[in-house]
Amino acid sequence: MSKSIAYIRASTGKQDVNNQKLAILEFARHANLKVDEFVEITISARKTSKQRRIDELLEKLVDSDTLIVTELSRLGRSTSEVVTLVNELLQRSIRVIVIKQNLDIAQHDMSSKIIVTLFSLFAELERDLVSLRTKEALATKKAQGIQLGKPKGTIQASKFDKDRERIEELLRLGMSVRKIAKVMGYSNHIGLNTYIKRRRIRELLEMESG
Description:
Layout (H helix, E strand, L loop, with lengths): L3 E7 L3 H17 L6 E6 L11 H7 L5 E4 L9 H13 L3 E4 L4 E3 L4 H34 L20 H9 L4 H8 L5 H9 L2 H9 L1
Parallel strand pairs: 1-2, 1-3, 3-4
Antiparallel strand pairs: 4-5
Helix pairs in contact: 3-4
């Protein structure tokens, strides 16, 4: 037997969650629909689909089920992500109802196919605009003489940073890099040797002792 699941996502605040829930319940009452389950999460849209419980939602929904949301933006981080998700649901014969945009999308409905096609065009346009803005911004910075990328010589964080004090201590004792790697449980000494050279740890220790 088919069921209806409502998905609610709010970035912050219980009030927004409650407002979405009330809107869905009010819609369901007027449409004579029963909401069998609510999937709720308070989290930023920038998080992964798993963190936003989208993966869980997809597992709960089966053929002929209905998904209800207050607005499309609740389903994804971008237009393209929303379109991909809606297309996946339609391919599985899952009906999608979006209250704010007044959309009722079903697989075999011609108007739904037109809507999804338009969404796909908008998603493609969004990707093109983002790419264009990025290229224009980089070109402007280059024209202004701003160096792109990380400055030469920038030292990035390393997995060895957390053990630096211990590494320095063992170097002071005259232990070889190969031996230190073995003592510290590293898989090989090459990475550690590179770390010590790039951070000039031996030089700093010599200056310290001198």
